[in-house]
Specification:
Helix content is 8%, strand content 75%. A hairpin with a 2-residue loop joins strand 7 and strand 8. The two termini are 37 Å apart.
C-alpha cells in the first residue's frame, strides 16, 4: 500500500511538472484552528468512544500555478488532552474566482501520513496513512497577503493495541474535521 501512495505522488507531480513553465507564485502560510477528533479507547478500564475537541497549528508552503491550481505541503500538529497528532500532508487545490471580487473559492484533496503521540501508548507511537479533502475561501487582504478560511476532513487508519495494568486496550483514531484560518504570503 505504501508503494501505491508513493507512486501516486510521483505520477501526480510528474503530470504537474509541465505546469512549472507557467506563471507560478510561491507562498508560505501560518494559521490556527479547531479540530473535532473522532477516536476511541476500549478494553481494560477504558471504554471511551466519542469526539474530542483539539486546537491545531498549520504551517504550509507551496506554489500557486496560474492562479487556478495550488500545490502545498502542510505540517499540521493538533493538541488535545494527553494526545498530540502530527500530520504531514501534500495537497492539491483547484482555485475558482468569484466574479471580479478579491475572493476565491478552493476545493481540493490531501494525502500524507500522521503520527500519534499519546501518553498511554507507552512510548510506541502510532504512525499511519492519512487522506481527505478540503474546501474554503481565499480573500486578498493586501498585496501578496491573503486570508484563507477553510474546512478540512481527514480520515486516518490508526489502530494501536497497548497494555494498561496488564489489560489489552485498543486505541483507534478514525477521523478529524478541522475548521481553520491561515495568513498566506505570496512571493
Amino acid at each position: 500500500m505504501f508503494k501505491k501512495i508513493i507512486s501516486s505522488f510521483i505520477i501526480f507531480f510528474a503530470m504537474n511538472s509541465s505546469a512549472m513553465s507557467f506563471n507560478t507564485d510561491t507562498f508560505v502560510g501560518v494559521g490556527t484552528g479547531l479540530g473535532f477528533v473522532k477516536q476511541s479507547e476500549k478494553g481494560g478500564s477504558k471504554n471511551e468512544d466519542g469526539t474530542d475537541t483539539s486546537t491545531l497549528l498549520i504551517l504550509k508552503a507551496g506554489v500557486v500555478i496560474e492562479d487556478f491550481r495550488r500545490v502545498s505541503f502542510i505540517y499540521n500538529p493538533s493538541y488535545l488532552s494527553g494526545t498530540r497528532i502530527n500530520t504531514f500532508l501534500g495537497a492539491f487545490d483547484y482555485i475558482l474566482p468569484i466574479d471580479y471580487s478579491r475572493s476565491k473559492l478552493f476545493l481540493g484533496a490531501h494525502l500524507g501520513f500522521t503520527n500519534v503521540e499519546k501518553k498511554s501508548l507507552e512510548g510506541s507511537n502510532a504512525t499511519d496513512f492519512a487522506y481527505g479533502a478540503q474546501f474554503g475561501i481565499l480573500n486578498d487582504i493586501a498585496h501578496n497577503l491573503e486570508l484563507e478560511i477553510g474546512t478540512k476532513f481527514t480520515k486516518y487508519d490508526i489502530d494501536k493495541n497497548y497494555k494498561e495494568n496488564g489489560a489489552d486496550v485498543k486505541y483507534k483514531l478514525d477521523r478529524v474535521i478541522d475548521f481553520y484560518a491561515t495568513i498566506n504570503y505570496r512571493f
